[in-house]
Amino acid sequence: RKRRLSTSNNNGDNGEPQAATRIAQSYAAMMSQIPLSDVRNFCFIAHVDHGKSSLASRVLELLGNFSLTQDSFDKVATTPQNSSNVPNYDEHNTKDTQISSSNNTNSSKEDYLKLDTLTVEQQRGITVKASAASMLYKPRDPAICSPDNPTKHLLLNMVDTPGHVDFGFEVSRSLQAVQGALLLFDASQGIQAQSLSVYQKAKEIQHGQIALMPVLTKIDLPHARPLEVALAISDVFGFDPDAVIHTSARSRIGIEEILEAVANNVPPPTAVEDASNGNSVPFHAQVVDSWFEPLRGVVCLIKVLAGAIREGNRMAVLNASFFDNTNNSTNNNKDHFSVQEIGMVVPHRIRTHELTSGRMGYAVVGLRDPRQARPGSILVAHADLNFIAQQIAMNPENKNTHADKNNNSLWSTNLKQIATQNSSSNNNEKSVLFASVHPMEAYEFDELVAAVDRLALNDTGLEVHRTSGASNSTGENGGPFLGPGLRIGFQGLLHVEVFRQRLLDEFGMEAIVTPPKVPYTIQYLPSKSSRRSQDDPTEEVIEDLANWPQSGERFDVLEPIVAVRVIAPVEYAGSVMELIKRKRGYDMETQPIDDANWMFTAHMPWGEVVTDFHDSLKNCTAGYASFDTTEAGVKKGRLAKVSIMLNGDVVEPLTFVSHVDAAQAEARVVCKKLKETLPREQFVIRIQAKAEGKIVASESIKAYRKDVLTTGGSKAVGGGDITRKKKLLEKQKRGKKRLQSQSGGAGGGKVRLSQAAFNSVIARSN
């Protein structure tokens, strides 16, 4: 009796999970029946905080994707609906079902921002990683679907992208994988700097073949001005004002209109075929994204370009370097693996056991080394590896030959082009900032290396520089103050902050990140006192200021220049122009966007932008301005290296480059801020700044004295015996000398450096 009751209770408790599994399997089965011609790949692109994630979440909510993995399915209505967009999950019910959505339009932002899964995204309220999801949609016009589609649904693969300029590499990578993009504009803010930037990217990628659709968001806000913004969009971008879709994620307005626009305007992906005879080519897929899970290893988000991938298949990962190696013996020994799990992302995972052409999904590939499957790599069947190597050896110059009877040489040629164009090394935008990352303790360096490798797998904007191996002797040398570390390239200051926070949130690794520095080009001039040999190059790029030319050398410094585009309200025009001039901007031009906003363009040194230009711009415009940058070459400048010394020892991570006219003022600010942030020690800390061989600023932190002549409060030591007192004072004196000799400096002790000390260098112009 107890066993029967136990079995009955278990079945009752597991009813809903079993229903979830049945619904998910039915959902996946319908997806597998949809032909490639009924697949739509699209993404959301916009300026930061223009409602991309909110709108994407509302789309998933309308189509019922969030309910696929909920514990309760009481929202699944069995009443037939003519406008249903959710497929039939019941095998005995041939009619569609629809998941009802709440009519409450006052839901909080956290209720529907379900695509931002990283802790840093939820805390900061921004998107830093592109996220994908697949869904089924039944269009209003059934003629849109192919006649051979039994489901009469479209398979939509949606990608939500970041909006901040520091994560533009995520936008570029997402645009490579789609055929359409929804360009969003805030109905109250209008056109912003990143709106222009992402529009230009969409036009440049895939030779301008991406279908663009303008969308207005947040039209229900009291200060929204949809008509004015729509007319401005028409003037700047050339869109038809009547074609602009009006939406609101909070009020659930215009969500289905977005889906209809995607269904009617976005073309399906092109089937990959051998152009010589039209035959389908063997399986290959592109790695769109990848991440590391401690229990399962490397997990890849893939886009199947041709063929099908199933669980248990033997696969190999190819990158651009594979196609440069024509040694067949090396290619034959290429590492391979067995696919452990295959499924689709909705945005939760649904296991489907296989993915066919045109599908996007995840694959657990069983790799433990995060560097083996970076985004941009190509997955191929291990059985085809020898054939690919032979084709590369026969066709090293990438010519379209038809030597084999199946005419498959074009396939290997296309693989090489895809791997070269979309590999992680070529697809990444160039790093514009370089910083050193050090663990809090030297013995944690190996853990830091492992954490950075896993994080770099998921963050392709990072550029990690280190020698082979991972030991305390291989990495960036931080000197006596920091110890070993890594040299990493970033896309901007926000990218640096997000990287440091993700290290702490995802790996529990607290690290010190030194002030980022821009790369400078050094041109050496002839000099009799030069210590350089004739074989040394006359020009080199300096990413680490420790390699700055020594005294006695004659050289010119070329600093990187960026074209800055600022969009701000017209009433702040004077403040914006004054700020640009103060930051050594030149070639300034102004252009009205609409009646409320102007666009300012100028050229500025990149070193001036990365310090505090963002904060200064927000302060002088009450937070309403936005800006973006593009590279504009290099320009000769009158620059000087400012070295920061603590008790006579140069602290290279605190060193910075400044314009000669501002070097002394900025050095004084840094010394003053270091005085406020460094903790007091039992010895005097002398803070000095040195530029062009002279001390230009100096501060000191007084030592605090421990009263060794009292114990337990105010009780005196010695009882009147002066010998005992002298002995304690001499012991304290010897201890201070020992502290002063720990760093080996000229009378300096070992000073404890914190992250706040390095942040003082970043905001040195305040």
Automatic annotation (TrEMBL):
What spans are recorded as compositionally biased (Polar residues)?
A: 78-87
- Where mainly located? plastid
Question: Where in the sequence does UniProt note compositional bias of the Basic residues kind?
Answer: 730-739
One term of GO molecular function: GTP binding
Q: Which keywords fit this entry according to its UniProt record? A: GTP-binding, Hydrolase, Membrane, Mitochondrion, Mitochondrion inner membrane, Nucleotide-binding
So which domain of life are we looking at?
Answer: Eukaryota
Q: Name one Pfam family in it.
A: EFG_C
Q: Single GO cellular component annotation?
A: chloroplast
InterPro entries hit by this protein: EF-4 (IPR006297), EFG_III/V (IPR035647), EFG_V-like (IPR000640), G_TR_CS (IPR031157), LepA_C_sf (IPR038363), LepA_CTD (IPR013842), P-loop_NTPase (IPR027417), T_Tr_GTP-bd_dom (IPR000795)
Q: Where is the Tr-type G domain?
A: 37-270
Q: Where in the cell is it found?
A: Plastid, Chloroplast
PANTHER family hit by this protein? TRANSLATION FACTOR GUF1, MITOCHONDRIAL, TRANSLATION FACTOR GUF1-RELATED
- Under which name does UniProt file this protein? Tr-type G domain-containing protein
What is the species of this protein? Leptocylindrus danicus
Lineage, uppermost ranks:
Eukaryota, Sar, Stramenopiles, Ochrophyta, Bacillariophyta
